[in-house]
Design brief:
Elements (H helix, E strand, L loop, with lengths): L2 H11 L4 E4 L2 H8 L11 E6 L3 E5 L4 H7 L4 E4 L6 H12 L4 E4 L5 H8 L5 E4 L10 H21 L9 H14 L3 E2 L4 E4 L19 E7 L1 E3 L2 E2 L2 E7 L4 H23 L5 H14 L10 E3 L6 E5 L12 E4 L2 E4 L3 E4 L2 E5 L3 E3 L11
Helix pairs in contact: 6-7, 8-9
C-alpha cells in the first residue's frame, strides 16, 4: 500500500471525502516532498478518494512537481490562497466532509478554513506512520549502522580531561563525515549528570571513576536512529557493575518478551523491564521504556505503563530502560527494534560493559 493509499484509508475509516494535511512531516510522508520549511506554512496536502493534491507556494512548486509525481500540484499565489485552493478542489470533487489534523492546525487556520468549508472534522493521524515498509526500515537500519560506527570511533577519544561538549561535538562530526545529520542534539553526561535523563551536554570535564552516558542519533534519507550507550572510565566498583548489568538484564528481558510473543503488548514490555529494576532494589525509571521512531525521533507506538499499543510487524521502536540515582550516577542502554518476520535489533553496538 502506498503512502497516499494509507492516507485514503483514513477517509474510509472516518467517513470523509477529503483529508487536509498541514504538518510538514506528514506532507513529506504522503507525497515524498520534504523540501518545505518546518516552520513556515507554505505547503499543504489535500487527499481525496481519487487524488492527492499538493498545494504549495511558487518557492517550492517546481521541486514539488519533480518530487511528487503521484500528486497533482497546485500553485498558490497572492490571488489564490491555500483556503481558496481547497475550496476550488472541494467544488470540483464535490467534497462534503473534510478531515483535518487536530494536533496541528492552529485556531486561526481552523477559523480561516472553516469559513469556506464549514463541515470540518478533526482527525488523529499520528499513527499514520507507525507501520513502516521495507524501504523505511532499511533507511532506519542504515542510520543505525552510521550510529554504530560513530560509537566505535568515539571510544578512541574518550579519556579524562575531555568535556561533555567535546564528546558531543566529535560524535556529531563523525556523523556528518558520513554525509548524514544528527537526528537530535547529542546528550553526553558524566557521573552525576547521567542521573538526569535529558541532561544538556556541558563544559564538565571527565574525571576517572565515572560512568559516561551518550545518547545520540542519525538522520539518513529523512529517517532517524536513536541509541544510548553507557561506558565506564577508571576502576569500577562492584556496586557500579551491578547497576550497569541490572539495566542490561532489564532490557534483555523486555526484548525477549517481544521476541517470544505474538503481537506483544507494549505496556507489558514496559512492565517487565520496570519490575525487574525495582526487584533489584533500584528506583523506577521516570520515562517510558521506549518509543516508535521514523521520520521523527519520537512517534507511535509508545511502550509505557499507560500504552494501549500492540507491537505489530512493520513497527520500529526503542527499548531503553535506565537507572537514575540523583546526585550520584545513572545508566541507560537504548537499542532500536524492528518487527518484520521477527523482532530484530537494528543497533548492533555491544551492550556489554565497556571500561576504558
Amino acid at each position: 500500500m502506498s503512502h497516499i493509499e494509507k492516507a485514503q484509508q483514513i477517509l474510509l475509516e472516518n467517513n470523509l471525502d477529503g483529508l487536509f494535511i498541514s504538518s510538514p512531516l506528514q506532507i513529506g510522508y504522503v507525497t515524498n516532498f520534504f523540501g518545505i520549511s518546518p516552520t513556515e506554512r507554505e505547503s499543504f496536502v489535500l487527499v481525496t478518494k481519487n487524488a492527492c493534491y499538493i498545494l504549495t507556494s511558487p518557492l517550492y512548486f517546481e521541486d514539488a512537481k519533480k518530487t511528487s509525481p503521484d500528486c497533482i500540484p497546485v500553485e498558490l499565489s497572492v490571488d489564490v490562497s491555500w483556503v481558496e485552493a481547497v475550496e476550488q478542489i472541494a467544488n470540483k470533487e464535490k467534497l462534503q466532509r473534510i478531515g483535518f489534523e487536530e494536533y496541528n492546525l492552529t485556531v486561526s487556520e481552523y477559523k480561516y478554513l472553516s469559513s469556506k468549508q464549514p463541515n470540518l472534522t478533526p482527525v488523529t493521524i499520528k499513527n499514520l506512520r507507525e507501520i513502516k515498509d521495507i524501504a523505511e526500515i532499511e533507511a532506519i537500519k542504515k542510520a543505525c549502522q552510521i550510529g554504530d560506527e560513530a560509537f566505535t570511533k568515539i571510544l578512541d577519544i574518550i579519556k579524562p580531561g575531555i568535556s561533555e561538549k567535546d564528546i558531543a561535538f566529535q560524535l556529531e562530526s563523525i556523523i556528518r563525515d558520513n554525509k548524514s545529520l544528527p537526528s537530535f542534539p547529542t546528550i553526553v553526561a558524566f557521573g552525576p549528570h547521567a542521573a538526569v535523563p535529558h541532561h544538556r551536554s556541558s563544559d564538565t570535564i571527565l574525571e576517572k571513576n565515572n560512568f559516561v552516558l551518550m545518547d545520540f542519533g542519525v538522520q539518513f534519507e529523512n529517517y532517524c536512529s536513536d541509541m544510548t550507550r553507557t561506558i565506564y572510565v577508571g576502576h569500577i566498583s562492584d556496586s557500579e557493575k551491578k547497576l550497569y548489568y541490572t539495566v542490561k538484564d532489564a532490557q534483555q528481558k523486555a526484548f525477549e518478551y517481544v521476541q517470544s510473543t505474538n503481537n506483544p503488548n507494549a505496556q507489558q514490555a514496559d512492565k517487565i523491564a520496570r519490575d525487574y529494576i525495582v526487584s533489584q532494589g533500584y528506583p523506577q525509571f521516570p520515562h517510558s521504556l521506549g518509543h516508535g521512531i521514523g521520520l521523527e525521533v519520537h512517534e507511535a507506538p509508545s511502550l509505557s505503563p499507560y500504552s494501549k499499543d500492540v507491537l505489530k510487524p512493520g513497527m520500529v521502536f526503542s527499548i531503553e530502560p535506565g537507572i537514575y540515582i540523583p546526585n550520584n550516577t545513572g545508566v541507560r542502554i537504548e537499542d532500536l527494534v524492528a518487527i518484520s518476520s521477527s523482532p530484530t535489533l537494528l543497533t548492533l553496538s555491544s551492550r556489554d560493559l565497556i571500561i576504558l
